[in-house]
Specification:
By secondary structure, this protein is an alpha+beta fold. The strands form 4 sheets. Strands 1, 2, 8, 9, 10, 11, 20 and 21 form an 8-stranded mixed β-sheet that branches.
Length: 439
C-alpha cells in the first residue's frame, strides 16, 4: 500500500466522513485517505450523546434569520435526500413532531410574525394556539398561566443519529471506491509542507498527500496555528451539557424563542434516541480544553486560544452586555451538582411549567464542545462555520452548530475546491440531481 494519496482527510466525525463519501461517489479523485485518532468514527461531537440529534433546517430555530434559514434548509435537506437514497429513514433518521414555542404576549406576537415571514420557505409549518398545543403536548399547558402559541409540524424527520450517519458515509464510500483508505487509531500529530506535497506524521508512520482537508473540530485551528496559518483567529471552546427528565413527559422536539442578544441557542427539549428519555439543554459553559470528556491538554488549548489584547477585547465586549454576562455566569452554575439542577429547572419551566427540580437529573458525560471562533482582527465572535483557506492545497474547517446539519453542503463546497485545484472532475449534475433536487 502506498503512503501517498491525492487527498487526505484528518478527522472522522460527520464533516470528515461526509467529504470522504462526497469525493468517493461524485469525483474522479484517484486515492483518498481518512485519518481518525480514536477507534471508531464520530466518537466526539458527532456522537448521538454529543449533540441534540437534530436536523437544524431553520424552521424552529428562532436564532436563524430568513436568509440563514434559506441556506441551511438547502444543506439540511441534502441529508434528507441521502437517507432516502440509502434507506436510512426510520432507522437513523426519525420522524417526530417539532415546534417553536412562544410564551407570553410578546413572544406570541413574534411567533405569529415569524410564521407569516417564513411560511413560503417552510409551507408545512402550521400555527398552533394553546388548545392545539394542549392536544399535542398536554404537559406544555399543565399549570400554564401565560399566553402561548407555536409554529410546528408533524410531518417531517427532525431527529438524526449523526454518529450512525457518519459510519454510513464511510461504508458507502468504501463500497464505491477501492482507493478509499480509512485509518482508525491513527492520530496525525504534525502536518508540514514540503515542495508541493503535504507530509502527515503519526507516531509510527508518515503519509503524503496532494491536498489535505482538516476536519478535526477545535483541533483544526490547532493544526493551522502550528503551520503558521489562521493566526488572526482564536478559539473559544463552549461546552454543551444536558439534563434528563425522569419522566418521559413530552414526545416532541420543543424549541423556545431565542433572546436576540445571546449568541447561543435557547434551551430546548428533545426525545433522546439513545435511551428513550427526554433531555433538555444544551447549557453553554466555556471550557478550557479542545475535547469534552477527554483528558485536558492545556498546551493545545493555549495554542488555539492565542491569548492577547484582541481576545481580551472580545471577552470584555461580551461581558459588557448584561444579558450575555448573566447568561455566561448562569451556564457555569448549571454544572454545579444540586444547585445547578435547581437553577436549570427554571429554564425548563418555560417549556413545562409544572416540572420540579426533583424531576430532572444531570446527564453524565452527555454533550459536546463547540469551537466558537474569535476573529481577532475585527474583534468579534464568529457564530457560523469558519474555514482557513490560504489558496494553498490545504483547508482547515471549524464547524460548530449546525455543522452536522450542513455536513453534505460543506462537503460539496470542499469537494469543489479540492477537485478544482487538483484539476479533477466532480459530477455536480449528479450531486444536484441526487442530493439537492429542488431545495
Amino acid at each position: 500500500m502506498s503512503n501517498h494519496y491525492n487527498v487526505a482527510i484528518v478527522g472522522g466525525g460527520i464533516t470528515g466522513t461526509a467529504l470522504l463519501f462526497m469525493l468517493s461517489k461524485y469525483s474522479k479523485v484517484g486515492s483518498i485517505a481518512l485519518f481518525e485518532k480514536y477507534d471508531d468514527f464520530a466518537t466526539l461531537n458527532s456522537n448521538a450523546k454529543g449533540n441534540s440529534q437534530t436536523m437544524h433546517c431553520g424552521d424552529i430555530e428562532t436564532n436563524y434569520t430568513l436568509e440563514k434559514a434559506r441556506k441551511v434548509k438547502k444543506t439540511a435537506f441534502m441529508t434528507d435526500h441521502y437517507t432516502d437514497m440509502y434507506g436510512y429513514k426510520d432507522k437513523y433518521h426519525l420522524k417526530c413532531t417539532k415546534m417553536a414555542l412562544g410564551v407570553g404576549d410578546e413572544e406570541v406576537a413574534y411567533i405569529k410574525k415569524r410564521h407569516e415571514d417564513f411560511k413560503e420557505l417552510f409551507p408545512y409549518m402550521e400555527l398552533w394556539n394553546a388548545d392545539q398545543i394542549k392536544e399535542i403536548e398536554p404537559a406544555v399547558l399543565d399549570g400554564r398561566k401565560e399566553n402561548v402559541m407555536a409554529m410546528g409540524s408533524h410531518e417531517h424527520y427532525p431527529i438524526v443519529d449523526w454518529g450512525e450517519i457518519s459510519k454510513t458515509f464511510v461504508k458507502n464510500a468504501k463500497d464505491i471506491k477501492e482507493d478509499a483508505d480509512v485509518f482508525l487509531n491513527t492520530q496525525i500529530i504534525d502536518i508540514t509542507k514540503e515542495n508541493e506535497k503535504f507530509r502527515l506524521k503519526t507516531k509510527d508512520e508518515e503519509y503524503t498527500a496532494d491536498f489535505v482537508v482538516v476536519d478535526a473540530g477545535a483541533h483544526s485551528l490547532y493544526f493551522a496555528h502550528k503551520m503558521g496559518r489562521g493566526m488572526e483567529l482564536s478559539c473559544l471552546p463552549v461546552g454543551g451539557s444536558f439534563y434528563y427528565s425522569k419522566k418521559n413527559i413530552i414526545d416532541s422536539k420543543i424549541y423556545t424563542v431565542q433572546n436576540p442578544k445571546l449568541p447561543f441557542a435557547a434551551i430546548h427539549g428533545d426525545p433522546d434516541i439513545t435511551n428513550g428519555r427526554v433531555r433538555f439543554g444544551p447549557t453553554a459553559p466555556i471550557i478550557p480544553k479542545l475535547e469534552r470528556y477527554k483528558p485536558a491538554k492545556i498546551r493545545e488549548f493555549l495554542t488555539t486560544m492565542k491569548f492577547d489584547a484582541s481576545v481580551v477585547s472580545v471577552g470584555f465586549g461580551l461581558l459588557k452586555e448584561k444579558d450575555i454576562r448573566n447568561y455566561l455566569i448562569k451556564n457555569l452554575l448549571f454544572e454545579i451538582p444540586y444547585f445547578g439542577r435547581k437553577l436549570f429547572t427554571k429554564e425548563v419551566q418555560k417549556i413545562l411549567p409544572s416540572i420540579e427540580s426533583k424531576d430532572l437529573e444531570f446527564a453524565e458525560k452527555v454533550g459536546g464542545l463547540r469551537p466558537q471562533v474569535i476573529d481577532k482582527k475585527n474583534r468579534q465572535l464568529l457564530l457560523g462555520e469558519a474555514r482557513i483557506d490560504d489558496g494553498d492545497n490545504i483547508i482547515f474547517n471549524m464547524t460548530p452548530s449546525p455543522g452536522a446539519t450542513s455536513c453534505l453542503g460543506n462537503a460539496y463546497k470542499d469537494a469543489k475546491l479540492v477537485t478544482d485545484r487538483l484539476g479533477i472532475e466532480l459530477d455536480c449534475d449528479l450531486i444536484e440531481k441526487e442530493l439537492i433536487r429542488d431545495n
